[in-house]
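Hi R.,

Here's the chain you asked about this morning:
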Amino acid sequence: SDYNGLRAFQSQEQMFALQEASTDIMMVPTRGGDWDDNGEWRLDHSHNWTATSREGRNSWGALLSSVYNCDLALSITGIAPEKKAQALFLKAFYYYNVVDFFGQAPYREAGSSPDDFPKVWTSAEATAQIIAMLEEALPNLPAKNTSDPSIASKDAANFLLAKIYLNKAVFDAPSHTGFNANNVANMNKVIQYVD
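And here is the predicted structure, written out as tokens:
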């Protein structure tokens, strides 16, 4: 599985920037000609990025490379159930971030060539797939990891499921806005996974 992919979350030119510099929680100052990075930070902060913007492009590549590495681990014949569960958790985590950042997710069916054009899940389809991956992983993840907290556990999967159900109404809406009649059921799932 691809635990190394988690390192990309601390890089200033990937997910960290998309999560922080695009909000009012952080603004990158410019000191003379330094730190402006050709206006990249201003584009992030004002939500005016494009398909070629540094943080979006880097995040897209890092997240989907990590999904690919998880798929490589999952393709190993005779993979141990606990290793498969960890790879499924990580794949779900990376896909969750793809959906959260970009609103849709490309995927390849098992056995297809990396040269084939990927198919694309809508946000709702990807969310359903992510939930299925986490539910499949849960039984074979350790209950707690007091000896090695760097390994995915049932608690991590339950937390991610709760977070998904907390946002599911938005992820299921084509416009990624608003709520729907399923909110009560979704909130009951949040309670189930955090209880």
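One quick note: The first strand starts at residue 104 and ends at 107.

Cheers,
M.
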